[in-house]
Structure of Coenzyme A biosynthesis bifunctional protein CoaBC:
Amino acid sequence: QTNIPLQQPLKGKLALVTAGPTVEPIDPVRFISNHSSGKMGIAIADALAAAGATVKLVLGPTRYAPADPSVETIHITTAAEMFNSCIANYPMSDIVVMAAAVADYRPKTVVDKKIKKGNEDMTLELEKTHDILRTLGNNKGQDQLLVGFSLETNNEKEYALKKLKDKNLDLVVLNSLKDEGAGFNHDTNKVTLFDRDGKETALPLKSKQEVAKDIVSAIIELQHENK
Ligand code: CTP
Ligand code: CA
């Protein structure tokens, strides 16, 4: 007998998830990136699939991958590639969770040959990337549910609530780097959820898989309200 899940509350729903870092090339040997491992977003993709959703995962460069073989993974490198993939998949998505650590700036020009060392000082000119989540929020349909992350080191609640409002989100997951065992590369995380109705849920430190389940439960609750 096969394992048939008893409950699939998100059956028939399409979910789009982003995870991992983006990598912005400077020249053929150098890049700008960040410490994201992708573990939190990958765990969310798995948890959404376990709840019955059909999941597409837009994943930046990382050695981690979803455990659930039904998750369709789209590998990207840069913020621009992540943007294009998200835009293409957004119209048919019912649930979108943006857990990726997207570069805010990229080198203005990518040099095609290795930059040689020269002066004592050197300046890299950067330009802003598209804010993917903000673009999706501005174009959100009535039945679409949008979840963002807020990665902060200070003024956490204020900044998280600002992102919830400014990016037109239904739920924001505050990830405070102040907390022990939280954030980049850990197998655990400690987050606080803020939803569009003003509900605040502080979760204790737990595995990223358990945090992902709690986030998916919050999504299912908000989905019921939509109806
Ligand atoms: N995000 C995005 N596209 C970007 C930057 C961020 O989609 N170019 C998303 C992230 O995936 C996350 C949310 O926006 O879900 C918040 O990211 P964060 O870096 O915390 O906030 P920013 O809006 O980029 O603001 P700042 O870095 O200045 O705090
Ligand atoms: Ca940012």
In short: The chain has a mean pLDDT of 95. Residues 104 surround calcium ion (ligand 2) (CB under 6 Å). Residues 208-226 form the longest helix (19 residues).
